[in-house]
Amino acid sequence: MSGFSYPILPSGHLLAIEGLEPPHISALLDLAESYALLNRQGKTQRDLLKGRTLINLFFEDSTRTRTSFELAGKRLGADIVNMSVSTSSVNKGETLLDTAATLNAMHTDLLVIRHAQSGAPALLAQKVDAAVINAGDGTHEHPTQALLDALTIRRRKGRLENLIVAICGDVLHSRVARSNIHLLSAMGARVRVVGPPTLMPSECARLGVEVHHDMRAGLDGADVVMMLRLQRERMNSGLVPSPREFFRFYGLDAAKLAHAKPDAIVMHPGPMNRGVEIDSAVADDAARSVIGEQVEMGVAVRMAVLDVLARALRRNA
Ligand code: CP
Which annotated residues bind L-aspartate (predicted)? Predict the structure, then answer.
């Protein structure tokens, strides 16, 4: 991989998509594309992160993000520690900042954090010397998910500009939706959000997206249909009547998908609630669903992010 003439992540961290400029996003996607090709060929660069330590600090459950950061770090030669929060001193009352200070004293180079509180990774970034990567914070952002989604779309559609992307379901609680709205809007896509009024955030107008409460209108002519998980664990009141009722109006099935373009792709960040926000027949339709490719691109994107942040560490070493 060749060097870059400018810093792709100028802050030295990846805390959010909001604030990244289109050339930075394109450079990350280009680098991730090259890692995707190397991964498919079984060739990986094993020494880029040699001697560097990456800690995965997940305060919320994860399958895809945590595993792919571990794989990405290993493929680049880093030493990886998956800290088990459930058996750590967090359970004895240690605060996030004291945990951070402890990890800092161990000279961690890269800290990947998922936390239920929006802003936790940004707070940590002020307190530690490591490069901090936001792996999902509350309802705020999930930047690497948006990057892997964008890479998947770009591979399938050849571009992001002028595509109609419908993001559907529980937008209110979705950090995936927020990161995707920032990224896709910055890259010139037309973003629609589709869902019941109770699951729409008030900042939709500020974010410059089209809002639809009817799936037929929201999916009409869409190039990309991105379904979101119904996050019942973040709801403290009954925002939807029942999963069955939700599926009837907002679950993606073949009949609703027929309103999108005939070659529209179907995406879901996972984990999926089959029969709630998406029908199994659509999720498993190899002609339309790119859900498996999203997971594959997750490793490549995380390799690219670690690569870029490690270069900045070397510059500062
Ligand atoms: N998409 C996503 O963040 O999945 P995990 O919760 O499994 O990491």
Answer: 92, 175, 229
Q: Which domain holds residue 81?
A: 22-142+296-312
In the chain, the number of structural domains is: 2
Distance of CA 270 from the midpoint of ligand 1 (Å): 6
CB 55 within 8 A of CB 99: no
Global pTM value: 0.96
Q: Are residues 153 and 100 in the same domain?
A: no
What distance in angstroms lies between residue 145's CA and the mean position of ligand 1's atoms?
Answer: 8
65 lines ligand 1 (CB under 6 A): yes
Position 8 in a domain? no
Asked whether residue 57 is assigned to any structural domain, the reply reads: yes
Strand ranges for 97-254 from DSSP E: 110-115, 131-137, 164-168, 190-194, 210-212, 224-227
* CA-67 nearest atom, ligand 1: 8
Q: How far is CA 197 from the centre of its chain?
A: 24
pLDDT digits (tens, 9 = 90+) for 184-218: 999 999 999 999 999 999 988 889 999 999 999 99
